[in-house]
Predict the structure of SDR family oxidoreductase.
Amino acid sequence: MSALLLEDKNAVIYGGGGAIGGAVARVFAREGARVFIAGRTPAKLDAVARDIGATGGKVDTALVDVLDEQAVEKHADAVAATAGGIDIAVNAVSFPHDQGTLLADLSLEEFMRPIDGFLRALFITSKAVARHMGGERPGVILTLSEPGSKLAVGGILGHGVSAAGKEAFSRLLAAELAPGNIRVIGIRPHAVVDAPAAGSYTTDLFKQTAAAAGASSVQELLDGGAMAQGTLLKRLPTLSEVAETAAFLASDRAGAMTGTIANLSSGALVD
């Protein structure tokens, strides 16, 4: 029987009640980690916790606003005190942002919304967990971005700039934290094909894009429409693929990886 990837690891997942965060939490728990899921919606956190508990996994939930620096620090301190340290942290928090509006009609507020939200959350959570990581026990911080970081298309100014900012943050933070035995890796999935079934965020985000592409629904756009056809694999990544990749990257088997971006765009981008 093969060893569990994350046996005896302590993992904090911000946005743990969301589609990607919940999928990551379930896989981490399956692979032996004790998962601490944090978010703002009790029902979503409880649903993930029930799934993990039903399979014998170890899970704790907490209501935390990632934009509240003191609350995030207090939660990280409590996790470290309870578990003896933090080995893995995943920032899977999402913020609403515009897609499809060009510069002439885009307000400054809409442009800055994802930039401020995503980067502020990434800074706050990374700073809170990093002080409880590393040393004799390797630490890992995983971040999430999107292909918009490198695409040259119109209508995604705020989205693309925020994605590029998250990737730059990950690379630079990796350089800072490496001497302390902490790795930092970004994960760049495309639109996740089965995320709409897990919540309305993806549906709301891509409904304007779907209409512009002539798709009858966001699901049609994701399953076999223009977004899927624009990839080398002619399909989009699944929640399972993103979560399984996150588990590998967080494990000691990926111990030589840091300061890089894992491209899960199905070939929408070729690095």
About this structure: The two ends are 36 Å apart (CA to CA). Residues 172 and 259 are 7 Å apart (CA to CA). The chain has nine helices and seven strands.
